[in-house]
Write the structure tokens for this entry.
Amino acid sequence: MSKYDKIKQEAYEANMKLNKLELVIFTFGNASAADRDEEVFAIKPSGVPYDQLSPESMVVVDFDGNVVEGSGRPSSDTPTHAVLYKQWPVTGGIVHTHSTYATSWAQAQMDIPIYGTTHADHLTSDIPCAPVMPDKMIKGNYEYQTGFQIINCFRDKHLVPEEIQMVIVANHGPFTWGKDVFQAVYNSAVLEELAKMAWLTRMINPDVKKLKKALREKHYERKHGKNSYYGQD
């Protein structure tokens, strides 16, 4: 038994859920689950196919990226996760995928525009695209700098990570987070669906206008506002 068994189990289940939802293939992507009291997180080992994963194979890492427990090498994206956990205390789980539609918007270097109420059910703004990384950052500690590319994007656009729990990184792909890793998985699936809907909408009508403010606020607040009434008590 290990005191990290809970987050290792959660990380394993989250990674398998990504595979089941077809948000990842082969060895693409990763999910991590944090223990904020211990200041560690469990993450998928690098380059291991999903059908070979187990709770025991998850690697436990601290918020500085140092391995605490596990015999395998953690995901190559571990430094990105570590930066986000350290900089954003609200974060309890993180997911990174290369899902098709979200990654396509990232490769196009474009925010995913808010066109409909499905999008507004989850956030009232476009899904931000962090800009292309400068060469100096790429040639340095690339994965570590990716975390700051996301942090800087939110700072520059005056966005709040508690409200907007998803981002795409230009030329790279999507990252999502949440209070726990299962919310991060949910957000990853939602992000992919919104990216697909936005692409199809623009294909049907290239001149389509974004969702108007009143509808954005109505749909978001009925689920998330202080007077929300969606769902059960």
